[in-house]
Every structure is written in C-alpha cells, then in structure tokens.
Design a protein that fits this description.
Structural class: mainly alpha
Number of domains: 1
Largest sheet: none
Order of helices and strands: HH
Distance between the termini: 20 Å
Helix content: over 70%
Radius of gyration: 14 Å
Amino acid sequence: MNKQTALIIGLMAGGISVAAWLLAAGGYLLVWIAELLTIITFPVFVIFIALWWNAKSGDEDIPFIGY
C-alpha cells in the first residue's frame, strides 16, 4: 500500500463519519445509525491516517507499526 492509497482510504472513512452526522443533524438519518457509522469508520480513519503518516513516498512496503 502506498502513501496515496492510505490517505484516500483514511479521508473516505472520515468523510463517511462527517456525512453521517450532517445527515443525522438534518433529520435525514437516524442518530443511532450515524453513531454506528462513526463507531465503524473512526478506527479505520485512525489506522489509515497513521499508515499514511508513516509511509514512504515511493513503492516501498509500509513497516509494521505494532507493539
């Protein structure tokens, strides 16, 4: 996975969460559904933004962030 792919996935996850809350605030989506979408997408957002932050610009593989 390269740096651009990690950023796109992270921003998509954040965008889904923001859109869910805007739709819930506008009355188009139930609040519990917006909460569920945020619970699902927030970890994805954090992980892929961290992967983007640590990724190199080239085609190298991303090292394990663990421990």
